Amino acid sequence: QLQLVESGGGLVQPGGSLRLSCVASGSTSEGNFIGWFRQAPGKGREGVSCISVSDGTTRYADSVKGRFTISSDNAKNTMYLQMMDLKPEDTGTYFCNFADSWGQGTQVTVSA
Of 88, 111, 103, 84, nearest to 36 (Cα)? Predict the structure, then answer.
């Protein structure tokens, strides 16, 4: 079974930056896109960004375009999410996802 472990969350002021990491290990699953989702308190889980494992194609939610950058290092089985110009509405738990595998999440809080 594929295991995903996120890290890099924390408390940051508006306008600040964070870089999230997701390390994959174990058996591979079938799928093309690995990505990030987030869930704010009292809200549903929403897609943030994803990257194709085959050709590196990236996709972003409109709310993060121009501020977040997704990337991957296949040699390290690691995916990253560089988050810039963070806003309070970016607050939430960020989850890594590939096929039917999910990480445990890492908390991002944007507050003054």
Answer: 103
pLDDT tens, position by position, 6-65: 999 999 999 999 999 999 998 776 778 999 999 998 999 999 999 998 899 999 999 999
Question: Of 32, 25, 26, 19, which Cα lies nearest the Cα of 70?
Answer: 19
64: left (phi over 0), alpha (psi -120 to 50) or beta: alpha
Nearest to 103 by CA among 10, 22, 8, 11: 22
Q: Are 22 and 79 in contact (CB under 8 A)?
A: yes
CA dihedral defined by 8, 9, 14, 15, rounded to 10 degrees?
20
Task: Answer whether 17's CB lies under 8 Å from 86's CB.
Answer: yes
How many residues are present in the chain?
112
